[in-house]
Write a structure and sequence with these properties.
Distance between the termini: 38 Å
Structural class: alpha/beta
Strand order of the largest sheet: 6-7-8-3-9-10
Shape: globular
CATH architecture of the largest domain: 3-Layer(aba) Sandwich
Strand content: 15-25%
CATH topology of the largest domain: Rossmann fold
Number of helices: 19
Number of strands: 20
Radius of gyration: 25 Å
Number of domains: 2
Length: 511
């Protein structure tokens, strides 16, 4: 294998105002190499791929192919330079048939048919509407379309995540064959087994920067996890001490999930949530957490399994059904929950009006008092309360939570509630969540910031590949243990330093 890089990306920076999605990202890809691009949630992997393939333009940085600098301003520029990506979401236009999608991208039809067959889909109707094609097959079609262009560099972003085992194996076989002709592959995956079996090297990103390049070999997982976390695994936040001091009185079971399944994303998930308990959900992007929260909030219907509220099996056909059973949802995207052109009072008071069963006056005095109490409790800045859209992101999130405090919800589903808000407001939300638990409320808390688990939660449920792979007591749920669990790695190595015995019955535990 020659040492002259096929692709080089140096000093890539991408800023959005004051936010830096990439700070100093670099990657060197050799001919005939399968190169893993790895990092925790938010590390910058997808941003880097989009820059390499022209979907985004870097603020600064340099991209060179075979030693020649390239200005990749669009996906068409990337294709002409020999770079093609298959993203996480299908790119075929749903309202066109497969053949029309191919014509739109000028994909050679015969080459496409060849690769579809090689990837394990022998009977394909090119006249079928893309919206009628199953998700797994759409992913294969996206890959076949990319391969038909014969790119020098193929970028695969979580290519196998939505595929059954037989199709995933076909994809890995085709990727291996690509390297035999001198072509190269950049491979993004959360599955260490795939990385170990397929890749030659890995570049690791952390907080938008390249922090290391490692050769793939035995026991490389621990080194990769260390690079992902950096000095954070050595810091003493006091979070573990606070977690150990936290009382763990377990109340009655408020919410029970049994063998829940949602499409192909969530598979056989079970856990309980008790009165006065905060249960954290830990998962990498696309592992089924979105579907879990949507099912519990009544936004989508499970394909199998049982949801019980206070011991009674329930079926939610719409979000109102979940609300009527005392379950409230706080989404990560505040625009999904708020009426942006309405006032703070109107947004917080929304459950009062939607709960009216028949014509009649609303008790405005009671509503006003309840809303004011919620505003004071969360310290919401109401100087711009004419329209919620004029509030800061942190205050908007407070309004979303205040709504369900005012409605006296018994179970609150918080999906990444501190994303994109300032440290002071984060601290207020942490304190509020613990206060709600002390009052007997139940909170299911997904966060993309792993250090929050020990600050907020009583225990953590780790989901990987749509399944619960571990349940960690908060005392040992530091970032190292949680990162290993989120990647489906056994707890043993993370727990050994703390003198904690692994549970041999846990999925993925070492024998």
């Amino acid at each position: 294998m020659t040492t002259s890089p096929l692709l080089e990306a140096n000093g890539l920076v991408k800023t959005y105002g004051a936010v830096r999605a990439l700070r100093n990202a670099s990657l060197s890809l050799l001919p005939g190499e399968v190169h893993a691009l790895m990092g925790a949630n938010g590390a910058g992997k997808s941003t880097m791929v989009k820059i390499l393939t022209g979907a985004l333009r870097p603020t600064t940085g340099r991209i060179a192919i075979r030693g020649v600098e390239q200005k990749v301003r669009s996906p068409a520029d990337a294709r002409r330079a020999g770079l093609v990506s298959v993203y996480q979401e299908p790119s075929l236009i749903p309202d066109l048939d497969v053949l029309s999608n191919l014509r739109l991208t000028r994909t050679p039809v015969d080459a496409f048919r060849h690769w579809v067959h090689e990837l394990g889909v022998p009977d394909l109707d090119l006249g079928e509407m893309a919206r009628d094609v199953p998700l797994a097959i759409l992913r294969v079609l996206d890959l076949a379309r990319a391969l038909a262009i014969e790119p020098d560099v193929l970028l695969l972003d979580e290519m196998t995540a939505a595929l059954p085992a037989n199709l995933a194996e076909k994809v890995l076989e085709v990727v291996r064959r690509q390297t035999q002709t001198g072509r190269s592959v950049i491979f993004i995956s959360h599955r260490f087994l795939e990385i170990s079996a397929l890749c030659d090297r890995a570049t690791i990103l952390r907080d938008g920067e390249t922090v290391g390049v490692v050769d793939i070999g035995p026991d490389v997982e621990d080194r990769i996890v260390e690079l992902m976390l950096g000095e954070r695994i050595l810091r003493k936040h006091g979070a573990a001490v606070a977690a150990e001091a936290r009382p763990h009185a377990q109340g009655k079971t408020r919410l029970s999930v049994k063998n829940l399944r949602v499409g192909t994303k969530l598979n056989d998930v079970s856990f309980d949530l008790h009165d006065g308990e905060v249960v954290g959900v830990v998962a990498l992007e696309g592992q089924g957490q979105d579907e879990l929260f949507a099912a519990l909030a009544g936004s989508i219907r499970p394909s199998a399994g049982v949801i019980e509220v206070e011991g009674e099996a329930v079926k939610f056909g719409k979000p109102r059904d979940a609300i009527d059973r005392g379950i409230a949802y706080v989404p990560g995207d505040r625009s999904d929950a708020l009426l942006m052109h309405r006032s703070v009072r109107e947004n917080i008071a929304l459950p009062f009006s939607t709960g009216v069963r028949r014509w009649g006056p609303i008790n405005m005095s009671n509503e006003r008092t309840t809303v004011l109490r919620a505003i004071e409790r969360l310290q919401i800045d109401t100087r711009a309360q004419g329209e919620v859209r004029r509030l800061s992101g942190g205050n908007q999130q407070k309004v979303t939570i205040a709504r369900w405090i005012a409605a006296d919800a018994k179970t609150i589903l918080c999906f990444d509630p501190t994303r994109g808000i300032d440290v002071r407001t984060k601290t207020q939300i942490y304190a509020l969540v613990r206060e709600l638990a002390a009052q007997g409320k139940s909170v299911l808390y997904y966060t993309s910031e792993l250090e929050e688990i020990q600050l907020v939660c009583d225990r953590a449920v780790a989901i990987f590949g749509g399944r619960v792979v571990d349940v960690l007591p908060v005392e040992i749920a530091d970032e190292l243990a949680l990162t290993r669990a989120a990647y489906g790695l056994p707890r043993d190595a993370a727990a050994a330093d703390l003198g904690i015995l692994a549970d041999p019955t846990r999925p993925g535990a070492a024998p």
